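Q: Hi! First time asking for a complex rather than a single chain. Here are the components, and I think there are two in total. Is that enough to go on?
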Amino acid sequence: MDANRFLSTFHSLTNIGWTEEGVMRLALNTYDVKVRQELVRILSTINANVNLDDAGNIIGSLKGKSDETIAIGSHMDSVPYGGKYDGFYGVMAGLEVLRSVREKGKLPNHTLSLIDFTNEEGARFQPSLLGSGLTTGVFNKDYVYSRKDNDNITFERALMDSGFMGDEKNRLVYNKPKYYVELHIEQGPILEEEGYQIGIPMGIVGLSVYEFTFIGQASQAGPTPMNRRKDALVGASKFITSVRDYARSKDNLRATVGIVNVKPNVYNAIPREVRLTLDIRSTEKSEIDKAASELINMAKKIADEEKLEIRYNHLWTANPVGFSDEVINAIQKACEELNMRYKFMYSWAGHDAQYMTRISRVGMIFIPSHLGISHAKEEFSSDEDMLNGLRVLEKVIELLDR
Amino acid sequence: MDANRFLSTFHSLTNIGWTEEGVMRLALNTYDVKVRQELVRILSTINANVNLDDAGNIIGSLKGKSDETIAIGSHMDSVPYGGKYDGFYGVMAGLEVLRSVREKGKLPNHTLSLIDFTNEEGARFQPSLLGSGLTTGVFNKDYVYSRKDNDNITFERALMDSGFMGDEKNRLVYNKPKYYVELHIEQGPILEEEGYQIGIPMGIVGLSVYEFTFIGQASQAGPTPMNRRKDALVGASKFITSVRDYARSKDNLRATVGIVNVKPNVYNAIPREVRLTLDIRSTEKSEIDKAASELINMAKKIADEEKLEIRYNHLWTANPVGFSDEVINAIQKACEELNMRYKFMYSWAGHDAQYMTRISRVGMIFIPSHLGISHAKEEFSSDEDMLNGLRVLEKVIELLDR
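A: Yes, that's all I need. Here is the structure of the assembled complex.
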């Protein structure tokens, strides 16, 4: 591999969509479309065969001796105010692997594919993993195409406008890769704090996302005495604090309220409605279900105390998944051959790898995230750590290709 | 006065801007412009002299025997998802007074003016009372014109586009009305609960508005362990609950967090920044100042506990004002002559009357608000209550005109 080529491609392309507040490369927006065009352009310089499926996933392949495929993938979309590394690093590293295989000129045993999945983040279109969900058969087309962003633009519309609408026959579920490997930043503080260079996830924790709406009564802030109020924001605030305190009291649980929308959101009106999301994660499905049920009861109790109505609904669940022992072993072997300090762990974030377990033997490779920060402009992994991950990825592909 | 003419004008015009979620007649938006055009059209049918000042305030006058003026006023803009009565009632009642004076054909001693003040609510352009503030000399033109709405449109731009840009020489501060009377809904539950038909405010309580920003660290919701988080939303939530509990423990204080904006506002990212507004009111300035200082300390303590940064700044203050004894006495006398059950009280909401005390002898008349609800689609006052208020207003003008 060519370290300088990788670093210069990575740093120049991930600046597309960078702003003072972070990366704004939301799925299929102007910035995302621009980096996609760049990716396709570079793939064409190495004569890769580029296919698009009907989720807009980009699949660039170098034909090997056999049609059996080893796929490398991740995503280039970001959350709003996101970081430069999340997802993007994995696609750029895969691109370098393909470039250097082409450069060596030696035909691999397997066909090698690089995949950029559409709308991994779920920031523009909810839920997340829409591209990998459609291509692996988890979601159906009607569901995926009807997802809407905040401006009421459907996924289908955005995909058509982007120029990346492809063909249903190119879905991975009809062309299953034998292996799928995803290289990613940890997005947590463990590897850095404990001094490891590489993390080897055993799988991905489960996730359930709920939406809660607290409904009170708007009124003018001045003339309504404090003891007559039905303030939806006070109820929501008590709930948000309770969620954090509850999750902090459990070992194997994380719970986050990430979205809060207040109506009417005027300084001198008592809030009448607050909608919020609750994200619950654990390695054990049973613990997620227990937490959801206990937090719903807490919300009801708070609504009662504050004379509010409460509504909630379950948005989606991703069950915990385990990765392939064969791929995990290959990653471990690669780390040992390269003298990398590695640690087995879990991924607490969702990844396209999750749905790829339905159709392929899957593994992931993590590199340290400085201070554990992700989904923020401060997200950072050093060039050295990125090159370590790239070396491990290249070695894993070599081992799986034997 | 003509009760049916008043009611039919009121109900048909306040429907301009009505939606299923409430009135959306924000200052100088399409709906506000449309009702303004209707108001000017009706004023022209009674040959009123219509002037605009450089805040877009509409001043329609019927010349009397003298140039000394009795003004009646309020506003036609609404908060988002607002009610049909707030402000609009006062303008429509004043219009009926002018119509019936013109109809009687008897020249009053004083010139009678009707004023529609621009951007009373402060919902589109903050702060509130921009129109009355400029016309009475509280605010200067640069300040008022540079206020921006959420789409970054300045007040000046919106005013020019509306067609209601008028002349600085028409400001009320250069043409001071001797008296100013404003008829308004109570926006609180007291009159209805205690069985009064009319409220006579002695003055308007004071108000201070602050903005607080809690700043933490965004990160991916999954991989960041609960005890390493700097969650700006948890800090803000603890503060919001504390504000309510604090105000509830005081007799003569109201405090409201009305606006909350979260960044990045994504379900799977720990919130890094929450901006919120705090509205503090009391009849006593000293109590507002004390509450502000104690709540700022609470915010600092919470930020400390949650490892957050905190910023706050004072947005604006309106000191408590007292109304003119002469006008209050006239309102009391009118109520007695009309056999209305009336109550002396305070206005806990700001009104254009507040700034009019700088240049005129001012009084207000309140009618009951059903359930005390205002700034919401459920805002309601009966036709009977509205007619009672209109009768008192007409009588007060007659008494002041003697």
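A: The longest strand of chain B covers residues 206-215. Let me know if you'd like any chain examined more closely.
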